[in-house]
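Incident log, structure service

09:12 report received: a user says their structure output differs between two submissions of the same chain.
09:20 pulled the input from the user's history:
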Amino acid sequence: MTHAAAPANPLRAYMAVTAAYWAFMLSDGALRMLVLLQFNALGFTPIQLAWLFLLYELAGIVTNLYAGWLAARFGLAATLYAGVTLQIGALIALAQLNPTWSVVVSVAFVMAVQGVSGVAKDLAKMSSKSAVKLLAPDGDGTLFRWVAALTGSKNVVKGLGFFIGAVLLGVWGFRAALWGMAAILGAILTAVVLFLPAGLPAKDKAARFTGWMSPDARVNRLSLARMFLFAARDVWFVVGVPVYFQAVLSDGTPEGRRWAFFVIGGFLALWIILYGAVQAATPRILGTTWPFVVEKAIRWAGYLVPIPFALAGAAWVAGSPADWLTAGLIAGLLLFGFVFAVNSSVHSYLILAFGDTRRISRDVGFYYMSNAAGRLIGTLLSGVSYQIGGLPLCLATAGVLAALSWLAATRLRGDGGHFFER
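09:34 re-ran on a clean worker, output below:
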């Protein structure tokens, strides 16, 4: 199958797309940590914290529903630039937050700004991933290596963003950190616009929106597994574990809160960085092309299920924060991250391998709509489960969602046990 209008130097184009994606995800990770830690320190409840991120995830669902059509209509470069530009606007808008506003007004304002950021993130993600499908040479394993490298390196950068966001909050404060991030992202956007080579797909003014599901059953089944996979992560990642660690680490003084910011940001950054490193290494862990790729996807989905249940049991037995529980939680979540990363990398390869080049941006958009739906479910359940049942219920909920992801992955067997990159 031939990639129409491929640039003369596809590696250079791939590197330019990757650079833009890195810059965006650095700001995305930093922004999430700034919002979470700032408003938790202001006394917001777990459910209120979850509400801050709900519109972000809901916007991602809606964006991905139409992003594939937008990319076909206006070109992938245009949707990539639009995503970064919207993120700059979201950072500047959030810097206008007034501390004298009521809780209701503050939550509504931050939700609205986070909604814009959610649109931005999924425009940038869909554009970058779709471009890889179009730029990678056919049939030699390059597609798997390139998508693993893009996804893995993106998460390393996003993890660094988590740490930078926590540090900026502790050193510069909320508003100055936002302005600084907006300025840096603006400079990077300018450089990418100047250096991105021509050759990404031309605009198709006749492109029409043709529905939200893919005509390929494999894409739809994989997307369902993806939804539950990311819900299983975000149910503890977004609110539960950060709030637990802040309760354990902070003594209520400004110095104690600052120390808690650094430690929480450092742990979440380490988790994301290691997650990204495993994603990038997955082709070496599992092999570039496999004779039974679907069976391996199902097997690794099953490996994830017992981990959050074991952690939930340990938290229930402990009853209250303890040093051994904190150490076990850190080790268990790192193991969860390893298995989760392999699952995520396999999914990222499969969606591009399954996707039809003629409608790749739409298949990828639908897949990431399911991804955003999973994050929305996980975000909501993170605040609710932690407020109702604390850490044990939060982690047990992650186990249930991981089991649902495994069950959804088993449905891929209906399309045969093997699939080669095409």
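09:41 both user submissions now match this output. Likely a transient worker issue. Closing.
09:42 reviewer note: Residues 10-415 form a domain with the Growth Hormone; Chain: A; fold (CATH 1.20.1250.20). The two ends are 8 Å apart (CA to CA).
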